[in-house]
């Protein structure tokens, strides 16, 4: 009977599915036609029981007949809290048989990033970057697709997949053009919300929907009834089958199986029995049928529903407190009743006693039938069984989440361990759930604050506003002392910063420094305060900050990281204020250890964050020490890529690598890096400072290249308009936006923007003419309308440039002065600008000075030298200007 039922189930679910099957067949043929063919994602959408699973089974049959490798996985209603559950089902069968060395070689740099999430490598001690892990999983599929081509991936019940898997699926869907694989996803229209719904909808939007799956028509139901029961089934009986089931393929198959079991005749006289038979196949009827199998079988089914996956006779026997023989007997009874079955060997190689529910609807009905108190108790026992089996705290945590709070310190400890494991594999949401549940236990008073602190650290990047509440509560309680308290204050200030509450971040560390009696702790907190103030572009309530920072840094020798931090902060502050560049470099050099970042101040170190090394590197970049700046920027990029940090950190690294290229005059390379930065920043979220940095630098680079229309398009597309972010962006976005406005003919708006930049820079004493070039830009804009003011602005710019003392700053000021003059005075100033900029590492500015000097001096040789330099930089607008001057005869 079971075999007949299964055959009928397959045929039932494929009735009236010709168009869907044709679409799938074409997709398989396309995949098999060419190794380099882009990937495809198909989405089957329909309510429960409409045949999505059977359609995936038919996809497997079609694909395997064409020689494809097929892997499959399934979401589970009770397993949504298990991170990476579905993607592990999908990929583990290919990776687990590999020796560790083989898997490491195969996945390359992604092994240490994606391996822990896939359960094939031990996680490290650090908190994994979720975006990096997601990208690593996408890369793993890309490599597997090359090795196993043609590869077909099947995901059933995607609406019940874990959030981490759905995030990966959305990312894979975006990049399927690079991955020659066919992905077929089956889902219900609802049953998912929040971030999971967003990820699933994003994946579906990137794919191609199959036709909506509908119920069987009366004719199809009649055909299925006769195919199952015989051609003698009369029309009235067939119509009643359709009426009772509503044409639902699953319910139709189950009802017809019941008819066979009951030996009911398929004639009109017995059609009235169909409704009662149908009730026994689902809901309360299913539960009643289960109870008829006996108490032991009911307990066995309940235990299987609690486990959800990894269902074996032995594990169920232990959870249901049955001996092995009784458990085996129950398993057979439940298989015979079409409640449990052996896993499909096509999807994985099951052990002899592996089991799964015949259909998710049955699993849900059985799980919901367990009395609430007993269900909770069974989850507690299951957690212990999983722990005793050596599967780890993370595996047991999904059961612990269902246990009622009971002041159990052991449960708190297990949940904290599980949270650490989740963070180590890149699942902060799972960690958050564990720690929030631990707080409900609740923890003992002496560790309550520590649990809150751990929760705050887990939610720092995903929910800064929530983090603020957790950390404030933790700091108000006893239990956080010494270094841990200082770390909590630092994390709180970071969360405030991420939540756009910089003033409060500054006040938080300032207040903690004032109350802490330890001089070394005070020094560290003061450094954090100055760091947050240093990246704030507007006024703070801390007058005289630069003077106090200078006095404090003057006492520092660089003996520890707090002193090194203060030296970096002082160097950065002096650089933005336009103080002597040599002194800035000397401060920065003192912050290094043997020319390198000190341990604890590196790009991935969490004690201080990335702000300090970024400040150090940009200080070098704007003091013409581009070799040191580029070494640090490249180190950041390599470090984040190796560590798998694919979120905001990597976006900033690409931005600053682009900044290095831009300063060097390698404009093509700068644009490439900045577009990659913007791509990642878009994924992280618009409006953040890192997003502004990417957009601002890209527009600056496009303007330098002479690509004005493209710069305007980028500005429009990404909202490059006030209000500006609350943290500093380099270069200053106001002069960059003003240059764009001036270049597109919006002169009045450009002048207004530059005057606003003047006021903002003056308010903070930021007089570096390279970082804040508002004066030179404004003097050019006012040259015709107000030459007197333009001349005064140039004079001030030259004074500030000479105070700063770099070849770039002085050369740029002279370029501007030359542009305001005529005759021999213009030629002399242009020649001086060339002399300074030739010694500068900034080749674009050198090229511009050469072209301008060639035009002023009517020198073909200088124009051709400028043209060659501009061409090597990728400065197309400058190239065009030089060629125009040469062809127009503006040379001697």
Automatic annotation (TrEMBL):
<keyword id="KW-0547">Nucleotide-binding</keyword>
<dbReference type="InterPro" id="IPR041664">
    <property type="entry name" value="AAA_16"/>
</dbReference>
<keyword id="KW-0067">ATP-binding</keyword>
<dbReference type="GO" id="GO:0004016">
    <property type="term" value="F:adenylate cyclase activity"/>
</dbReference>
<dbReference type="InterPro" id="IPR027417">
    <property type="entry name" value="P-loop_NTPase"/>
</dbReference>
<dbReference type="Pfam" id="PF13191">
    <property type="entry name" value="AAA_16"/>
</dbReference>
<protein>
    <submittedName>
        <fullName>Regulatory protein</fullName>
    </submittedName>
</protein>
<dbReference type="GO" id="GO:0005524">
    <property type="term" value="F:ATP binding"/>
</dbReference>
<dbReference type="GO" id="GO:0005737">
    <property type="term" value="C:cytoplasm"/>
</dbReference>
<dbReference type="InterPro" id="IPR011990">
    <property type="entry name" value="TPR-like_helical_dom_sf"/>
</dbReference>
<feature type="domain" description="Orc1-like AAA ATPase">
    <location>
        <begin position="16"/>
        <end position="184"/>
    </location>
</feature>
């Amino acid at each position: 009977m079971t075999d007949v039922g299964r055959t009928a189930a397959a045929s039932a679910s494929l009735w009236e599915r010709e168009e869907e099957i044709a679409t799938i067949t074409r997709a398989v043929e396309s995949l098999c036609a060419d190794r380099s063919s882009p990937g495809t994602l198909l989405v089957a959408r329909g309510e429960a029981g409409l045949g999505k699973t059977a359609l995936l089974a038919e996809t497997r049959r079609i694909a395997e007949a064409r020689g494809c490798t097929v892997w499959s996985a399934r979401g589970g209603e009770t397993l949504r809290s298990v991170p990476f559950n579905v993607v592990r089902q999908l990929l583990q069968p290919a990776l687990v048989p590999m020796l560790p060395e083989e898997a490491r070689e195969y996945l390359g740099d992604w092994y240490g990033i994606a391996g822990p999430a896939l359960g094939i490598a031990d996680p490290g001690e650090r908190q994994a970057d979720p975006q990096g892990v997601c990208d690593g999983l996408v890369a793993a599929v890309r490599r597997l697709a090359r090795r196993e081509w043609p590869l077909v991936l099947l995901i059933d019940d995607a609406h019940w997949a874990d959030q981490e898997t759905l995030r990966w699926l959305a990312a894979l869907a975006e990049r399927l053009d690079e991955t020659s694989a066919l992905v077929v996803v089956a889902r219900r229209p609802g049953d998912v919300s929040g971030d999971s719904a967003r990820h699933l909808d994003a994946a579906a939007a990137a794919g191609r929907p199959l036709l909506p799956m509908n119920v069987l028509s009366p004719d199809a139901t009649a055909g299925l009834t006769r195919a199952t029961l015989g051609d003698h089934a009369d029309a009235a009986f067939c119509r009643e089958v359709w009426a009772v089931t509503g044409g639902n393929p699953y319910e139709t198959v189950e009802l017809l199986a019941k008819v066979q079991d009951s030996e009911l005749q398929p004639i009109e006289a017995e059609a009235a029995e169909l409704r009662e038979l149908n009730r026994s196949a689902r809901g309360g009827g299913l539960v009643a049928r289960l109870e008829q199998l006996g108490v032991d079988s009911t307990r066995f089914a309940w235990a299987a529903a609690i486990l959800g996956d990894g269902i074996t006779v032995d594990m169920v026997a232990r959870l249901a407190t049955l001996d092995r023989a009784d458990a085996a007997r129950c398993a057979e009874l439940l298989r015979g009743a079409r409640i449990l079955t052996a896993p499909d060997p096509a999807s994985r190689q099951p052990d002899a006693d592996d089991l799964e529910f015949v259909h998710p609807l049955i699993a849900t009905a059985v799980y919901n039938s367990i009395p609430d108190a007993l269900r909770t108790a069974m989850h507690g026992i299951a957690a212990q069984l999983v722990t005793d089996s050596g599967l780890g705290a993370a595996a047991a945590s999904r059961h612990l989440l269902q246990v009622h709070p009971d002041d159990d310190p052991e449960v708190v400890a297990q949940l904290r361990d599980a949270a650490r494991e989740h963070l180590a594999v890149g699942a902060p949401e799972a960690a958050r759930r564990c720690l929030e549940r631990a707080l409900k236990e609740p923890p003992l008073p002496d560790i309550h604050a520590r649990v809150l602190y751990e929760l705050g650290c887990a939610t720092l990047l995903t929910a800064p506003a929530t983090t603020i509440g957790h950390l404030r509560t933790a700091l108000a309680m006893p239990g956080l002392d010494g270094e841990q308290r200082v770390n909590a204050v630092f994390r709180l200030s970071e969360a405030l910063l991420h939540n756009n509450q910089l003033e409060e971040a500054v006040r938080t560390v300032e207040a903690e420094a004032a109350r802490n009696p330890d001089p070394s702790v005070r020094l560290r907190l003061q450094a954090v305060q100055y760091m947050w103030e240093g990246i704030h572009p507007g006024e703070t309530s801390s007058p005289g900050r630069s003077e106090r920072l200078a006095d404090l840094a003057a006492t520092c020798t660089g003996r520890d990281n707090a002193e090194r931090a203060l030296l970096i902060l002082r160097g950065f502050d002096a650089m933005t204020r336009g103080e002597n560049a040599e002194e800035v470099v000397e401060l920065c050099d003192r912050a290094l250890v043997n020319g390198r970042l000190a341990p604890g101040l590196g790009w991935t170190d969490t004690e201080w964050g990335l702000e300090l090394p970024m400040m150090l590197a940009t200080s070098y970049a704007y003091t013409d020490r581009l070799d040191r700046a580029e070494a640090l920027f490249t180190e950041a990029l390599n470090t984040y890529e190796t560590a798998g940090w694919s979120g905001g950190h990597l976006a900033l690294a690409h931005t600053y690598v682009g900044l290095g290229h831009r300063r060097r005059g390698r404009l093509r390379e700068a644009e490439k890096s900045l577009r990659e930065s913007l791509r990642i920043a878009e994924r992280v979220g618009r409006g953040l400072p890192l997003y502004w940095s990417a957009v601002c630098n890209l527009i600056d680079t496009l303007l330098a290249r002479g690509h004005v229309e493209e710069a305007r398009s980028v500005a429009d597309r990404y909202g490059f308009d006030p209000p500006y972010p609350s943290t500093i962006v380099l270069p200053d976005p106001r002069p960059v936006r003003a240059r764009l406005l001036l270049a597109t003919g919006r002169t009045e708006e450009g002048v207004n923007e530059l005057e606003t930049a003047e006021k903002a820079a003056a308010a903070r004493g930021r007089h570096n003419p390279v970082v804040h070039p508002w004066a030179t830009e404004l003097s050019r804009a006012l040259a015709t309308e107000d030459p007197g003011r333009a001349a005064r602005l140039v004079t001030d710019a030259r004074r500030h440039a000479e105070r700063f003392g770099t070849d770039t700053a002085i050369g740029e000021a002279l370029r501007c002065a030359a542009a305001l003059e005529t005759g021999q005075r213009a030629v002399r100033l242009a020649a001086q600008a060339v002399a300074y900029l030739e010694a500068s590492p900034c080749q674009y500015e050198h090229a511009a000075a050469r072209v301008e000097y060639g035009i002023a001096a009517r020198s073909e040789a200088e124009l051709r030298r400028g043209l060659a330099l501009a061409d090597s930089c990728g400065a197309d607008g400058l190239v065009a200007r030089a060629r125009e001057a040469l062809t127009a005869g503006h040379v001697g």
